[in-house]
Amino acid sequence: MNSFLRIGIAGLGTVGSATAKIIQEQADMLSHRCGKQIEITAVTARDKSKNRKIDLSGVKWLDRPMDLATDPNIDVVVEMIGGEDGVALELVRASLENGKHVVTANKAMLAHHGAELFALASENDKILAFEAAVAGGIPIIKAVREGLSANHFSAIYGILNGTCNYILTEMWQNGLDFETALQQAQDAGYAEADPSFDIDGVDASHKLALLTALAFTGDPDFDKLETEGLRSITALDIDYATELGYRIKLLGITQNTEHGVIQTVSPCMIPETASLASVEGSLNAVFVDGDQVGTTMYVGAGAGGSETGSAVVADIIDIARGHRWQHKPYVETTTYAPKEARTGKFYLRLMVNDVSGVMADVTAILRDHNVSLKSILQYGHSVEESVPLVLTTHETKECGIRDAIISLRKLDSVLTEPCLLRIELLD
Amino acid sequence: MNSFLRIGIAGLGTVGSATAKIIQEQADMLSHRCGKQIEITAVTARDKSKNRKIDLSGVKWLDRPMDLATDPNIDVVVEMIGGEDGVALELVRASLENGKHVVTANKAMLAHHGAELFALASENDKILAFEAAVAGGIPIIKAVREGLSANHFSAIYGILNGTCNYILTEMWQNGLDFETALQQAQDAGYAEADPSFDIDGVDASHKLALLTALAFTGDPDFDKLETEGLRSITALDIDYATELGYRIKLLGITQNTEHGVIQTVSPCMIPETASLASVEGSLNAVFVDGDQVGTTMYVGAGAGGSETGSAVVADIIDIARGHRWQHKPYVETTTYAPKEARTGKFYLRLMVNDVSGVMADVTAILRDHNVSLKSILQYGHSVEESVPLVLTTHETKECGIRDAIISLRKLDSVLTEPCLLRIELLD
Fold first, then answer.
1. Is position A207 annotated as part of the catalytic site?
2. Cα–Cα distance for residue pair A346/A395, rounded to 1 Å
3. Torsion over CA: A101, A105, A109, A115 (sign)
4. For residue B375, how far is the Cα from the chain centroid?
5. Global pTM value
6. Residue in B173, B310, B324, B327 to test binding to A, most A beta-carbons within 10 Å
7. Which CATH architecture has domain A140-301?
8. Which of A72, A144, B207, B315 would give a disulfide with B134, using CB separation of 3.0 to 4.6 Å?
9. Tens of pLDDT along B17-66?
10. Closest Cβ–Cβ partner in B137, B148, B292 for A306
11. Strand partners for B57
């Protein structure tokens, strides 16, 4: 047994640097925990001169990430470049093919290319570890893959994007509108300059695809996901949610139903008494329903350098300890439910011209799409010559209400993009 | 590599039976997950004729648990007998000495003999796994040992006993007194006929000793634990807690302080807005503070057959996968803080004769022990000719207030056992 585990790190951004720092500063503790000396052998990064507050003097700087894949003095390649394709994907492929283990936080790459990469890792008898790709420092991948391995799962759901949760928390706590809360998230460093991956729900969907693969299907399939972001939510919706006794949270939900797997990321109304309602700010929280253990919940920081670095290093320690696992631990089903099988209760808020006949037009369209209304809340506080029209539905087919919205958009009296929120009556 | 992992189970009570049932009924899933066929080779149980709703027809029934330790056809002994010493301890010792892995849920045994048994397991290069010993089905041992292995820990704390949490929840929700709530817990199957291990905090202390070993000291040391149970809490204290904006929860807390490790199990007042305050009924919840990841939280069922069986089987799968770990992953310190180093804020409720001079006597005793009062709440609703005298303190030395209580008990005007609760201002 080699008493060293030699690490090559590609990318020294926030998480890459934090990972390097933990490995260097905690060398003694880490070697006690895994029985091996963990050593950073080589790194690559775009800017060699940047001050990262880590001492890399004894470490080899390689010119290109791909050099790590062929370096004979590297056992584990840590891919911290990011991006769905490109250099990251090439590096991971080449590293596995050359017999190196890979640790990555790259959810985009795995959501799109996970099937190929997991197969490649298995063929080469190497580990492709990705604890850091989902829910930051929370060891949720390990919990599902190992801690709950005696269970068939029925559902995994939760708050998977800290930026969205921060924005929704700010909107609720401080009455901010979406744009202001987003700006604040950007100023606080929670959101990127281009925030679309976060606020459009794409980042959460990447993570959900990985949880679906782990719990149900073996392979992630991003195209089988319904994704909706936060852009249509206004301060008004936050207020209505409060009046209805709800909170709005962006939830990722993957379920194994009688019709097949349903995976959705969307803003949901949940009861203000639900456990998830009190998960605030940039925290992440994941619920797992298992047939033996029941529901278990995991909460913690979903992002941040040292928080995510904690997960990267945990994967490295697993590899050093010799832990191995099947990349497809058990395939429960590969069937996805058709869109027609999806049902739910919904909240719908329209901004309409306050003219006579609007209500009749709207309710007729909903009736024609077999959407059964539970309540109509029209409070009439006027916003720039338009008034909100707020409805909630009974359990209804999702495709029905979505088709209805297409018709509603065409009405002259419907002024802005409708806001449709799923109502999830969680505990 | 042997493609079978052969299991011997000692004890077919609730958890032992559930474990056997999962292994038998989920054979296909489990073998996919670990790459081996998991097979129950032999069992022992006190009563062979009892109907456990599991089919053990092809399984060897041995006469004595110790026969499992010497059976050459067993790779892993699952110890489900229970008890701190006696047969369970002998079986685990002999099994490890004979080169078998051991999986156990026996927190009492490990809290008292863990140091010896972990050393024995390491000497024999075998795993002694105990996920099921702490917090039932929640994979908290794995989280601390593996998922958070990049972290130094500062504290682990939470609700570790479902019976106590059930009783306290019932007292709070339904205004029950302690005896009625306990009876109800017994009727519901949450508490044993002899409930003292639960309600005196001993069970939670066993679990806390294991978490302390894992996070800080390497070995559990039950004698270095302060344990207090629920017996002094009345419906009155629940009411006062509510008035003060608090909830009462039995908390296990282990901390690595500048003076050394402090581990206590005691009923605490926590803000009603704290995350732990909303963990109700028989649920368990554990918080872990790590230097990289910050605080992560784990919630789920703390007891029950299939819930705990889930953890037992997860350990078996780990062993089948070939996962190995150090039984003392890292010793942070072996120093325990002296009693004098412990400080805290406290709630103290006395039942006193409503005669003049009582308040002066009580406050004089507290002053003499350097206990600084924050508030005096005397609501005067009389209970059988006595009145409650309720105080809260500023941060004070715990030994001071405990010595004060010894003096207070001697006052003729103090009628029943004082109720002392720590106030923990958790988030």
1. yes
2. 8
3. positive
4. 32
5. 0.96
6. B310
7. 2-Layer Sandwich (3.30)
8. B207
9. 999 999 999 999 999 999 999 999 999 998 888 888 898 888 999 999 99
10. B292
11. none
